């Protein structure tokens, strides 16, 4: 079975400061990893994904994440946040290849303070 | 425009009154799924469907039914709603197989259900 742990339920950060949202996963096989973002009153949309290859993945809106197999982590980072980044962020994992179930973390609420 | 459409977006109902939340996608995706989102619990899968006439239980199926008679539609049925089904519901779809299948899910905008 696979699982995802998002270590912080809420992260307050000042505007233009850097941010890191932490995600650890558990799986005995190779995986695909995802970060989704949910803006207020909206559905989730894909921010970025890791399938294979380079461990540093760049996504939309200036976000990036690094896959670390040895530490089973996939932390999300942005060097300078904006007010518009205020949202909830979900890390997700799926066993690679064909159909597999996607497991979500409980989410991290990023609050950007002006 | 590629999208997943859910209706209704907001609904208040009473215990025991059957309701259906519709979901439709226009991307020809084989796989569709329903999730509920609750504070502190993240997204939990209710039911999923790998193709027409193929459905299976997710992690929290109790109190829900689904059907998949057409590829594009995947309605969620609450036969006898109870207050513990008050939640935010999301429908999602994706490709199931093939090289283009990267696991990315496409979500609807959500349906907020309140059961009194």
Can you tag this structure with a few keywords?
heterodimer, A: 114 residues, mainly beta, 6-stranded mixed sheet, 4-stranded antiparallel sheet, globular, B: 116 residues, 7-stranded mixed sheet, 11 strands, 0% helix
How are the secondary structure elements laid out?
The complex is a heterodimer of chains A (114) and B (116).
Chain A: E1 3-6, E2 10-14, E3 19-21, E4 23-26, E5 31-38, E6 44-50, E7 56-58, E8 64-68, E9 73-78, E10 87-95, E11 102-104, E12 108-113
Parallel strand pairs in A: 2-12
Antiparallel strand pairs in A: 1-4, 3-9, 5-6, 5-10, 7-8, 8-9, 10-11, 10-12
Chain B: E1 4-7, E2 10-13, E3 19-25, E4 31-38, E5 42-51, E6 54-57, E7 65-66, E8 76-78, E9 87-94, E10 106-107, E11 111-115
Parallel strand pairs in B: 2-11
Antiparallel strand pairs in B: 1-3, 3-8, 4-5, 4-9, 5-6, 7-8, 9-10, 9-11
**Structure classification of chain A:** mainly beta
- The parts of chain B where pLDDT drops under 50 for at least 5 residues are none
Outline the biggest β-sheet of chain A.
6 strands, mixed
Largest interface: A-B, 23 and 23 residues
Distance from N terminus to C terminus of chain B (CA atoms, Å) equals: 36 Å
The ordered H/E elements of chain A are: EEEEEEEEEEEE
Q: Tell me the number of helical segments of chain A per DSSP (H or I, 4 or more residues long).
A: 0
């Amino acid at each position: 079975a696979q699982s995802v742990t998002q270590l912080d339920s809420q992260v307050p950060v000042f505007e233009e400061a850097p941010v890191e949202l932490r995600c650890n996963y558990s799986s005995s096989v190779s995986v695909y990893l995802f970060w989704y973002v949910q803006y207020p009153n909206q559905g989730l949309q894909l921010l970025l994904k890791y399938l294979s290859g380079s461990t540093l993945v760049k996504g939309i809106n200036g976000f990036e994440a690094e896959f670390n197999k040895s530490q089973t982590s996939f932390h999300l980072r942005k060097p300078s946040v904006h007010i518009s980044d205020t949202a909830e962020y979900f890390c997700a994992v799926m066993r690679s290849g064909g159909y597999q179930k996607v497991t979500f973390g409980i989410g991290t609420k990023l609050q950007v303070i002006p | 425009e590629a999208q997943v459409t859910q209706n209704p977006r907001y609904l208040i109902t009473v215990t025991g009154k059957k309701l259906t939340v519709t979901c439709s996608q226009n991307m020809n995706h084989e796989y569709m799924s329903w999730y509920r989102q609750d504070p502190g619990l993240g997204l939990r899968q209710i039911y999923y469907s790998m193709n027409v006439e193929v459905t299976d239980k997710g992690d929290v199926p109790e109190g829900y039914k689904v059907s998949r008679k057409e590829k594009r539609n995947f309605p969620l049925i609450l036969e006898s709603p109870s207050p513990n089904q008050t939640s935010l519901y999301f429908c999602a779809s994706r490709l199931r197989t093939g090289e283009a299948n990267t696991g990315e899910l496409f979500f609807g905008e959500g349906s907020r259900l309140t059961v009194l």
